[in-house]
User: Which sequence fits this backbone?
C-alpha cells in the first residue's frame, strides 16, 4: 500500500481502497482501508461483520464524508418541509435495524477476530502435516482478520483432489473466485 499511495500521490490520483473483507486487518500498525482518501467496507452476509448487506465508507476527509453522505441520502437539500434534491442522489442508507446489528457485532470485533485467528491456526496446524497444500498465512508485518481461510495447492489436479475429498467428507470447500478479466462476459 505504501508504494501504491506514493505512486498515486506522484500523479495526483486519489486512492479509494476496496477494503470490503479487511475489517480488523492491518499493515504494520495501520488498519486496511485507511491508506487512501477513502476506504469501503462490506457488511455482506459472508463478511466478518454482517448485517445482511450494505457497508460503510470510511475517510478522514470531512468534506469527502459530507459529499458521500449527501449523495447516499438522495442528495436532498436540508429544508424543514420541502423535498428538494440538488443533483442525482441515491438511497444508500442502511436501515436502522441493520445498523443496530452491525454495531452490536462491531462491539465484539476483538472476540470475533480472536476466534477467526484460532480457527486459522487450527487449519495451519492440520495442513502443515499433509502433502496436500500450504495454508495461506499473513505476510510479515501484517495482521490478517482471516475472513477467508485459503490453501494453495501445487496444481489443478491436487486442488481437485482436495476439493473432492473435503466435499465428499461433508466439509464444504471451493476454489477461489475467477478473475473478472477471465470471465466470458
Assistant:
Amino acid at each position: 500500500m505504501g508504494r501504491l499511495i506514493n505512486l498515486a500521490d506522484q500523479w495526483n490520483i486519489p486512492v479509494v481502497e476496496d477494503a470490503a473483507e479487511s475489517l480488523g486487518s492491518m499493515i504494520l500498525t495501520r488498519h486496511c482501508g485507511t491508506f487512501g482518501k477513502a476506504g469501503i467496507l462490506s457488511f455482506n452476509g459472508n463478511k466478518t461483520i454482517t448485517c445482511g448487506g450494505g457497508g460503510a465508507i470510511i475517510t478522514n476527509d470531512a468534506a469527502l464524508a459530507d459529499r458521500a453522505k449527501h449523495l447516499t441520502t438522495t442528495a436532498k437539500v436540508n429544508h424543514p418541509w420541502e423535498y428538494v434534491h440538488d443533483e442525482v442522489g441515491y438511497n444508500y442508507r442502511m436501515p436502522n435495524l441493520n445498523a443496530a446489528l452491525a454495531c452490536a457485532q462491531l462491539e465484539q470485533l476483538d472476540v470475533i477476530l480472536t476466534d477467526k485467528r484460532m480457527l486459522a491456526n487450527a487449519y495451519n496446524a492440520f495442513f502443515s502435516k499433509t502433502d496436500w497444500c500450504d495454508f495461506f498465512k499473513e505476510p510479515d508485518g501484517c495482521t490478517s482478520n482471516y475472513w477467508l481461510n485459503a490453501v494453495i495447492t501445487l496444481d489443478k489436479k491436487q486442488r481437485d483432489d482436495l476439493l473432492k475429498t473435503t466435499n465428499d467428507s461433508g466439509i464444504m470447500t471451493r476454489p477461489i473466485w475467477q478473475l473478472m478479466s477471465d470471465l466470458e462476459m
Observations:
- The beta strands are 16-18, 26-27, 30-31, 38-42, 55-58, 133-135, 142-143, 151-153.
- The chain has two domains: 2-106, 109-173.
- The mean pLDDT is 94.
